[in-house]
């Protein structure tokens, strides 16, 4: 084509190029067909000139998997791992041996004065009384109206009886001046004579009769002095300078 390229003025040159282009294209197509035929042919065999190409066979089946290989050699020792979690708390250990006693400490500061206790007042019971006149009546409680001590008022001057407000052990005593007549006197507890005292009066004289006793009293028990017998044994006497007294007090209160 390039060899035919000569100078042709104007429109004629274009027409000639188109014709040549068509001719070249058809020639190329024939050449391609010839090449495909050649590819299908197996290599030529010199000894068998009349041999013809057959149909290609199918691909073979996959083979059976091979056996496992031998174990590999041991690898290198790995790096040390991270520390594990903290375990649970262990059991308490046995008690230690008692240590040696320490030195004596310094004396402490004295404490404050305590409040007054109530018991000291509650457990008080005492009386001491005397005759105010010599006109005592027999067979009834003797009324001692001369008061030496009767802070708790457990002795009743109007009845002549001591009234137990605190159960416990009590001490009682009496000192009687005897004048003009004999004296028979008893100490009573709950309407029962517990203690007896007798003094025989001597004429133109002045006698004393006395007695003392410990008695356990329950709450509400009453104790008093009383003349037993008749008017002949009613020689109790008292004046400004000769007393007849009756005394009692709590020795121990019950603790139960
Ligand atoms: C009482 O005692 C006094 C002595 O202190 C005596 O003088 C007086 O006579 C006594 N009373 C009686 C009634 O004896
Ligand atoms: Ca006597």
TrEMBL record:
Residues 67-82 have a biased composition (Basic and acidic residues). It is found in: Secreted. Residues 120-256 form the C1q domain. Residues 55-117 are annotated as: Disordered. It comes from the Eukaryota. SUPFAM superfamilies: TNF-like. Coiled coil: none annotated. Residues 1-29 form the signal peptide. The keyword Transmembrane does not apply. PROSITE patterns: C1Q. Keywords: Collagen, Secreted, Signal. Residues 93-105 have a biased composition (Gly residues). GO terms for cellular component: collagen trimer; extracellular region. The keyword 4Fe-4S does not apply. This is Adiponectin.
């Amino acid at each position: 084509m390039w060899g035919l390229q000569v100078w042709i003025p104007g429109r004629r040159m274009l027409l000639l190029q188109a014709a040549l282009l068509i001719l070249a294209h058809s020639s190329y197509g024939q050449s391609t067909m010839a090449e495909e035929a050649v590819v299908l042919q197996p290599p030529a065999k010199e000894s068998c000139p009349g041999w013809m190409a057959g149909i290609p066979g199918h691909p073979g089946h996959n083979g059976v998997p091979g056996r496992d290989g031998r174990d590999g050699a041991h690898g290198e020792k790995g790096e040390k791992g991270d520390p594990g979690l903290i375990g649970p708390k262990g059991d308490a250990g046995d008690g230690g041996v008692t240590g040696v006693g320490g030195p004596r400490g310094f004396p402490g500061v004295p404490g404050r004065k305590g409040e007054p206790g109530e018991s000291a007042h509650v457990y008080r019971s005492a009386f001491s009384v005397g005759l105010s006149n010599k006109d005592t009546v027999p067979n009834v409680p003797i009324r001692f109206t001369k008061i030496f001590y009767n802070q708790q008022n457990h002795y009743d001057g109007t009845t002549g009886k001591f009234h137990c407000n605190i159960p416990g052990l009590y001490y009682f005593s009496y000192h009687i001046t005897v004048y003009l007549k004999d004296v028979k006197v008893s100490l009573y507890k709950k309407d029962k004579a517990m203690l007896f005292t007798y003094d025989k009066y001597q004429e133109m004289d002045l006698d004393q009769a006395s007695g003392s006793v410990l008695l356990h009293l329950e709450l509400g028990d009453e104790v008093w002095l009383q003349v037993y017998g008749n008017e002949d044994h009613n020689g109790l006497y008292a004046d400004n300078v000769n007393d007849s007294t009756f005394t009692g007090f709590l020795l121990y209160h019950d603790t139960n």
